[in-house]
Each structure stands twice: as structure tokens, then as C-alpha cells.
Amino acid sequence: MAQTVPPSIADIHLLAQTLLSRLRVLVDTSTLTVARICSKAGKLDATKLDEHQLISYEIALASADLLAAEAACASVADVAELDARLFFTFTADALGNIVQRLNIIHADLDIDSSALQELAWGAEFTKFRQWTASRSVLGHLGTEVVHEGGNIGNINLADDIVMAHDAFHRFAETVIAPLAEKIHRHDLTVPEEILIGMREMGAFGLSIPEEYGGSASGTVQDLLMMIAVTETLSEASLAAAGSLITRPEILSRALLTGGTEAQKSYWLPKIAIGEPLCAIAITEPDFGSDVASLTFKGTKTEGGWLLDGAKTWCTFAGKAGVLMVVTRTDPDPAAGHRGLSIMLVEKPSFDGHEFNYTQAGGGRLSGRAIPTIGYRGMHSFDLHFERFFVADDRLLGETQGLGQGFYYTMAGMTGGRIQTAARASGVMRAALLTAVRYAKDRKVFGIPLIKQPLTQAKIAKMAALYAACKNLTYAIGARLGDGGAPMEASLVKLLACRSAEIISRDALQLHGGMGYAEESAISRYFVDARVLSIFEGAEETLALKVIAKGLYENALASDHPYDTQHRTQGTYAI
């Protein structure tokens, strides 16, 4: 009997591109159909959008999977063969997920699904799955991933980024990792030895231009540097290191977007050296991601503003010396997001879980850390302001910044979302490496765990998901650094954060009972991963209010889902 010749990378790649092209047409058509249903006279209607939230959620998730698969296939020629085959395994799973989501949409809206069924049950799709996701393929891939020690998903980067990554990786291994478990188990504040090292290495100035004391060059490499450093720090500890540079990045981007020259010259050099540390105060007790409805009040007074109200989930507020506080300066509720401004609130740095600060004039600011199941080290605080005075020159943009707070915040958050995807990549890598080590060492019924076919398949799928998410993070990071793709940054954040939960869950499961023990690092990765889909834009709000809405607006603007302009607006250009 003649042996079957295994398919080449080129053969698999060609078939993947064919299937993705067909699926792109189906996703775009479905998106346009929903956009038309949710609009009146060519404009999206808020009531109809709310009625179709479930459909919009499925559209967003399908679009994230498709974007990642397209980016993975576009990168096949630039990666090692193992990574290329992992990309194809991810693509097979992504195709299945997208088909399932489109089935839900088509059934709900009574859309003709004949083309979808033809693709899903056709010979090409079946062949692709056999080539990329059969049990024999997954077994081989899982074994190879373990043989490589989990060292997959490598990205070709500029030499200076590689050097910086390696330096921060050594710091993470020697300083952060040995402290991470203690910080988590005892709910400690990030210790000075980590902060001192981060300051000395220039971590807080990565997003700040050189003329203001940072190291950013103003090129696309800046954001790629930020992604590389964030991932390796998050691999050691999400809460004690990986998230430390997110807050200064958000604040510095807001300052660069709307700050006066005097404000930029004063604040940016200080932020660049980590003196003061920063925190971002957006969320309120009654309003989570609904920024436009915030009620925290700033009242004009002689020489400045009096702040009153509560903020919550303000991470690192105790240790921080400056808070970026989104404040309603226009008392008219009808002003919505146009009534918001940003105040730069200075305060002393406090260790511990609680603080109280009273100004000379009687204004008060108090904070209390919120107990959480994970993400310990930086601590998120409830804050209460009582007639807290902020001088006029601490209003971001001063008089020109009145009513611009929403836009300045969004300018900071776009970079924050891609950085959150990098944080998720770091957690994924930590979980994957832990699973690989455990599978090599552990025996079950006298057989090494890695010899079990199910273990091999699980590791292959974890590795494929991690490799695809990391690849997409860098691909969209490069486009963001070039001034484009803000909506795609939200898609990356959506996918990567969900994936971190999946990978950490499956890695913990491979550990059995030991995975559930606090003494095992994988338990920390698992609870830390859970927060990623909540902060920097909760998953549901991100999917409905940012991603789906943006996709619908693009579809309505063109109303021709297959033309070149539309394809590059909402997808990765392949």
C-alpha cells in the first residue's frame, strides 16, 4: 500500500488562504446584514443595537478569530516551521468557531446559510482539518512543543528591541519571579526593589519621547518595544511587574495628545523616571465602562476646581503620586461625554491597603484597597474625594482641555488595549511553559504525562492559541505605531484576554490537584488571567460598544463588503 505523502507548508497555506477568503466574504456579509437591521436612514440606532446584543457579541468574537487567522497565515513565511504548523492548527479551530457563530447569527436572523453550510461541510474544510488538527497532527505538534521546551511564537524584531527584551527578561527572572509568589500569597504591595530596578532600566519612559526624558523615538518600533517588555514582565508577574508600565503609558499618551507644552515639559520627565508613579481613575461605583455617563464632579472655584465623588477600581492609587481623574466639569447631564475633562491630582505615596490625605485647605482624599482573588501587588482602590482642590494648571489642556477628557482618555486607552494584549501573552506563555515542564516530569499510571495523546493535543492547542495571539499583538502593534488600526487593537485585546483564561485553565487542569493548590504558580496565573477580560474595557462593552459598532459603521460607510477599502478598514491586510 502506498504511503500518503504529508502535505507541505505551501499546500496547507494555499488551502488556508482559500478558506479564509471565502469565510471573510461570509463574515462581511453577515456584518453588513446586521448593520442594516440595526440602522435607520443609514445611521445606527441605539435601540436596535441593544435588541441585537447577542448577535453583535457573536460578530465581534468571530471577527477577532478571523483577524487572528488572517494575520497568522500572512506571517507563515516569516516563522519557523513549528510555528507555521501551529498557526494552521489555530486557523482550523478559528474556522470552526467562526462557522458556529455565523450559524447562530443566520438562524436568529433567518439568513440564507447555504454558502456557509457548503463551506463547513465541504471537502476543502474537511481536508484542512485533517491536515492541521487531526489527532495524529496534534500528537506530533504537542510532542514537538514539549521537545522545544515551549519556546514557540518567536517574532522577528529589531536588534535594539531584542536587546531590551533580553535585559528585562533577565531582570524578571532574577528579581521579579522570586518575589512574585510571596507578593501574591501575602497580598503585598509591589516592593521597592522591583520599582528601583524598573526605574533604573527606564521602564516608565518607554512611551515618552526622548525630548521629554523618555526613550521613545517616534517610530513604529516604540510600540513594539513596549509590547516586548510588557510580555516578558507579565510572564514573571502580571500584578507585580507587567502592569506597572500601563498606567504611565496611558497618562503620557493623554498628555501628549492634549497637554499644554508647559504640562508636557513638567510631567513627562517625571513620569519617565517613575517619580511620581501613576494611577488612572475612570470607573465609578455606578458606572463601569460607560464613560459618557460618569458623574464624578468638578466645580469651578477661584484658581482651580473642587472635586467631589467616588471612583473605584483605581489600580495602584495608594502608591501613586499622581492620579489621572476623569471628571465631569459640565454639570449638564445632556453634555454626556462632551462634559468630561481630566484632572491631574497630586497626592503623597502610601504603602499598604488604606490611606487618608487631607489638604491644607481641608480637602480630603481617602482610599481603600479592594480585596481580590488575584492581580495582587498593585491593588485596586475605592477612592473618595471631598472638596479636593486641584489648581487650574492641573486641568489637562487647561482651558482648551475643558470637555475634551473623553477624547484624551481614548487616546491613552488605545495603546493600553494593545499593551493589555501583551500582558495576556505574558500570562499565556507562563502558563504554557509551566504545563510543558509538568507534562515532562509527571507520570500517571506509570506513563509520562506527555506520552498521553490527550495531553499532547491539549499542549498543541494551547501553543497554537498562544502563538496566534502573540503574532496578532505584534502585527496590530506595528499598525498602531504607524498611526492606524485602533479598532483592531480592541479585537486583539478581546481575543488575547479570553485566550489567557483558556490556556491558564487548561494548564491548571493538566496539573490535577496540584494545580488547585496555592503553592503552585499555575494557580496564580489562573486567577490573574481572569482579570484581563474585565479591565481596560470589559469584554462585553468592548465587543458591543467598540468592536461591533465600529464594524457596523465601516460596513454602512461602504455598503460593499467585498471591496478593497472595506477589507483593509476592518481586517488585517493580507
3D architecture notes:
This protein has 574 residues and is α+β, with helices and mostly antiparallel strands. Among the domains are: 169 residues, Butyryl-CoA Dehydrogenase, subunit A, domain 3 (Up-down Bundle); 129 residues, Butyryl-CoA Dehydrogenase, subunit A, domain 2 (Beta Barrel), CATH 2.40.110. Helices cover 58% and strands 11% of the residues. It has 20 helices and 12 strands. Strands 4-5-10-9-8 form a 5-stranded antiparallel beta sheet, with no helix packed on it. Strands 3-6-7 form a 3-stranded mixed beta sheet, covered by helices on one side. Strands 1-2 form a two-stranded antiparallel ribbon. α3 crosses α19 and α14 runs antiparallel to α18. The longest helix has 37 residues. The C terminus is likely disordered.
What is the residue-mean pLDDT, rounded to a whole number?
A: 91
What proportion of the residues form beta strands (DSSP E)? Answer: 5-15%
Q: Any idea what the radius of gyration is?
A: 24 Å
Structural class: alpha+beta
Quickly list its features:
single chain; 574 residues; alpha+beta; Butyryl-CoA Dehydrogenase, subunit A, domain 3; Butyryl-CoA Dehydrogenase, subunit A, domain 2; five-stranded antiparallel β-sheet; three-stranded mixed β-sheet; 11% strand
